[in-house]
Write a structure and sequence with these properties.
The structure holds 2 protein chains of 2 kinds. By secondary structure, chain A is of the alpha/beta class. Chain A has helices at 23-26, 46-54, 86-92, 108-116, 126-138, 166-174, 180-185, 187-195, and strands at 8-11, 13-16, 71-74, 100-103, 121-123, 144-147, 152-155, 158-161. In chain B, the strands form 5 sheets. In chain B, strands 5-4-3-6-7 form a 5-stranded parallel β-sheet. Chain B has a 5-stranded parallel β-sheet with strand order 17-16-15-18-19. Chain B has a 4-stranded parallel β-sheet with strand order 11-10-9-12. Chain B starts with a helix and ends in an 11-residue tail after the last helix. In chain B, helix 2 crosses helix 5. Chain B is built from 17 helices and 19 strands. In chain B, strand 3 (29-32), helix 2 and strand 4 (57-60) form a beta-alpha-beta unit. The longest helix of chain B has 17 residues, at 77-93. The chains are: A alpha/beta, B alpha/beta. At the A-B interface, helix 2, helix 3, helix 4, helix 6 and helix 7 of A face strand 1, helix 2, helix 3, helix 5 and strand 8 of B. Bound molecules: iron/sulfur cluster (SF4).
Chain lengths: 204, 478
């Protein structure tokens, strides 16, 4: 039996700076031509990476110093735009695998997709994020420890509170983030709700 | 105290409260397409679960479909493989499918309403963020990811949190040459791309009341670009008139029962809103985006905003946008040369969108500028058929537009319709993200279909009101 509980997630962090980073940038549409998610990891942020190469800079996802990162740090409204689950699937499959995302805020569909895959998206204040990103850049090997039960994130001398709504928080720490089993189980209640909706019953 | 439509529909579809505190919400309609469903079906098979309500699930192919020719096998082997997977999946589970050979194929958010599948008071989901379009009918409609597509296939349900409701009123009148697209770009510009996170948008007010269903669809379509997962308009006589007689709409005695029910889900006059925003239609000009998010827009009459006019925290993003777009603050966008023009998409690929362009070019000597490649891509096969029946294919072709088969096309360029290099595209679609139109360095300017047509003809961004004759419109425009 695979352990699906998510309690403490630890590892180096990788910062990707910028607000409103959309899912087209996380995984360009040409990689959506696939019938499996495997293999997406190699193409995460592909066009942003190329753009930075042209500008003679290095995208964090290409920088060797972040190659072993497990926690992604982002700014505001990360994952906006297209609902493609391919975006978190690609992030999760990059490098050693990203196990948690810490941001100032997330787009809703993206956050929901991550939860459905057991990846916590937790938020921190803007000022705390600035500290965390600076730390991850200056000391890329420092271990970041996200402790979900206590809702804290520690790294070096930094120790900040993280925010996560109670529902997802409970689902993650109890390992019940995969909603399908729970939804399917309510067969009778589903049928009762449907029977009370006139359009489900042919307007009779 | 009364309730909003959102609350009424949410409550009526609540199956139960889940241990996590989320709500198990029943889905009335599930639309699927080739891009976000194959992995969901694989997950179902892995777990040995079937599809609970195949008769409430409808499939089409839109994102990858080529618009030159839909002949099989599709030229792109990956696209062909995706289509075959969809065909196998719908056949195995008995899901109704509108393939290219049916004459009913099209963009999922165009065909749902067109077939009368989309109805007031429903919950509607699809593995596509622009599912918010269907809110135009007074439905709660939102995009979901692939794992959730799996959940809905298996249980017809989703685990959801309740949203807050923001009422956005647009009162007064729109001036001639200002369209639903301009209203939505204006709203997003005012409230920001994340202003709607946590909210459902209820659109109301005199302008929206006068809007046709297709205009309401354009408006609701882009709710997600403002961060709102769903947006809706309360159903009214316009809604019912649109639905009556459509293939999947109720008929006979059921019609009257349906209209009574639909009217009952309208927001009550004394409903509570978490927020209210009131805008004036007269304040809205034809809008054009200049940046890399749909909020980075300007009236076509204005100069591009100075970076310093934005809050300090926004300035890096603004600077990044100007750099990517190779545009200069302080200069007008009008006069900027374009390379490509695209009229289509689930935002603006319906009959009335093309009608409005035809109205201005028919019988006039207008031609697409020599250096511009201009595409007209109908949102569905029925839209295309009707355009041909009315002779609009000839009107567009004679004016130098390329008249194509139905699909998503250059909205996201998963088919061969792509920008090349850093081409600049005037586009009636909904996203101007970096690389969105198929070239990693391609650039997109979002605007209304009439503004795209004007840009195509002039070869540069232009105020369509200078080129076309709106004098006769007076206050006719809604
Ligand atoms: S037209 Fe564009 S936005 Fe609409 S469904 Fe197709 S790809 Fe998505």
């Amino acid at each position: 039996m695979i352990d699906s509980t998510r309690t403490t997630i630890a590892g180096p962090a990788i910062p990707v700076r910028g607000h409103d980073i959309d899912t087209d940038r996380i995984i360009p549409a040409r990689y959506l031509k696939c019938v499996v998610f495997e293999g997406l990891g190699a193409h995460v942020f592909e066009d942003d990476r190329a753009q930075q190469r042209r500008a003679n800079t290095v995208h964090p996802f290409e920088h060797p110093r972040h190659a072993s990162a497990r926690i992604l740090l982002v700014n505001r409204n990360f994952g906006c735009g297209s609902s493609r689950e391919h975006a978190p699937q690609a992030i999760m499959r990059w490098g050693q695998g990203i196990d948690a995302i810490v941001g100032e805020s997330f787009a809703e569909i993206f956050q929901g997709n991550c939860l459905a895959m057991g990846i916590p998206c937790v938020t921190v204040d803007e000022a705390d994020m600035a500290l965390l990103m600076d730390l991850a850049e200056v000391q890329p090997d420092v271990t970041f420890t996200l402790d979900l039960p206590t809702r804290t994130l520690k790294a070096g001398d930094v120790d900040v509170p993280v925010h996560l709504a109670d529902g997802p928080h409970q689902q993650l720490i109890e390992g019940r983030w995969d909603s399908m089993g729970e939804l399917v189980a309510a067969t009778d209640q589903i049928a009762r709700t449907a029977a009370a909706l006139p359009y489900f019953t042919g307007w009779r | 105290m009364g309730k909003t439509l959102y609350e009424k529909v949410f409550d009526a579809h609540t199956v139960r409260r889940l241990p996590s505190g989320q709500v198990q919400l029943l889905m009335g309609l599930h639309l699927i397409h080739e891009v976000t469903s194959p992995q969901a079906f694989s997950m179902l098979r892995d777990r040995g679960v079937g599809v609970l309500h195949p008769e409430r699930t409808f499939a089409t192919v839109d994102h990858i479909i080529p618009t030159h020719s839909q002949a099989r096998p599709l030229v792109d082997p990956l696209a062909e493989e995706m289509l075959q997977h969809l065909e196998r999946n719908v056949a195995q589970y008995g899901i109704p499918f509108f393939p290219p050979t049916s004459g009913q194929q099209g963009i999922v958010h165009v065909i749902g309403p067109e077939k009368g599948l989309t109805q007031p008071g429903m919950t509607i989901c699809c593995g596509d963020s622009h599912t918010s379009t269907h809110g135009a009918f007074g439905a709660i409609a939102f995009g979901i990811g692939t794992s959730q597509v799996r959940d809905v296939l298996a249980s017809q349900c989703l685990a959801m949190d309740r949203l807050k409701v923001r009422r956005i009123e647009v009162n007064g009148r729109l001036r001639p040459g200002v369209y639903a697209k301009d209203v939505t770009l204006y709203v997003i510009n005012k409230l920001g791309v994340h202003g709607g996170v946590g909210y459902a948008y209820e659109y109301a007010g005199e302008v929206i009341d006068r809007f046709s269903m297709e205009e309401r669809m354009t408006l609701c379509n882009m709710s997600i670009e403002g961060g709102a997962r769903c947006g809706y308009v309360n159903p009214d006589d316009t809604t019912y008139a649109y639905l009556q007689g459509r293939e999947y709409a109720p008929s006979g005695a059921a019609w009257d029962a349906a209209v009574t029910y639909w009217s009952s889900v309208r927001s009550d006059a004394d409903a509570h809103y978490d927020d209210v925003v009131v805008l004036r239609g007269e304040d809205i000009e034809p809008m054009v985006t200049w940046g890399i998010t749909p909020a980075q827009s300007t009236p076509v009459t204005a100069a591009l905003p100075e970076t310093s006019s934005f809050a300090a925290g926004e300035q890096p993003l603004i600077a990044e946008a100007y750099e990517y777009m190779a545009l200069e603050p302080g200069l007008p966008l009008a006069g900027t040369k374009i390379d490509v023009a695209f009229i289509g998409s689930c935002t603006n690929g319906r009959l009335s969108d093309f009608a409005e362009v035809v109205r201005h070019i028919e019988g006039r000597p207008f031609k697409v500028a020599a250096h511009v490649k201009a595409l007209v891509v109908p949102g569905s096969q029925p839209v295309r058929e009707e355009m041909i029946r009315r002779g609009w294919d000839t009107i567009f072709r004679n004016a130098g537009f390329d008249f194509r088969e139905a699909g998503c096309s250059m909205c996201l360029a998963m088919n061969p319709d792509k920008l090349e290099g850093s081409q600049l595209c005037a586009s009636s679609s909904n996203r101007n993200f970096k690389g969105r139109q198929g070239s990693p360095t391609g650039r997109t300017l979002l605007m209304s279909p009439v503004m795209v047509a004007a840009a195509a003809i002039k070869g540069e961004v232009t105020d369509a009101r200078d080129l076309f004759d709106f004098a006769a419109d007076g206050s006719a425009s809604s």
